[in-house]
Amino acid sequence: MEKNAVCSTGRLVLGIIAIILFVLIAFQSCAAGVGNALEDSDSISGSSGFILSIFMLAGGITSVATRRSTGKGGLIACAILFGIAAVMGATSWSSDYSDLKIWVVVSVIYCIFYIVCIRKTGKE
């Protein structure tokens, strides 16, 4: 088996899942944002969820595009994108959009996966 085969396959699978999750998260976030606007609440969880979904889409595309690279640049970019997604969601979740907590945890798991891949890349 190739040295980085697990990370390469995992990057492809997680990238595709992140791209698919973008659609779900964006739809939920838009619905939560409309709900926040109709209620005149001060919550910005819907908007933060949409920004989280954009970062997940960018991370998923980067993951798929760089899955065969031997360097660490693509891995670092993915870890940063999913880390920013997690921070964006974690700083503004509220009870209005409780699913945002789930997407923050998913983003953290993705970020951890890419950090582990960074550590494994380049080792014999």
Structure report:
This protein has helices spanning about 5-40, 45-65, 75-90, 100-120. The protein is an all-alpha fold and about 120 residues long. The radius of gyration is 16 Å and the shape is elongated.
Labels describing this entry:
77% helix, 0% strand, mainly alpha, single chain
Strand-helix topology:
Elements: H1 5-39, H2 45-65, H3 73-90, H4 99-120
Helix pairs in contact: 1-2, 1-4, 2-3, 2-4, 3-4
Strand content: under 5%
Tally of contiguous helical segments: 4
Label the overall shape: elongated
Helix content: over 70%
Largest sheet composition: none
- Separation of termini? 13 Å
Short overview:
With 124 residues, the chain is mostly helical.
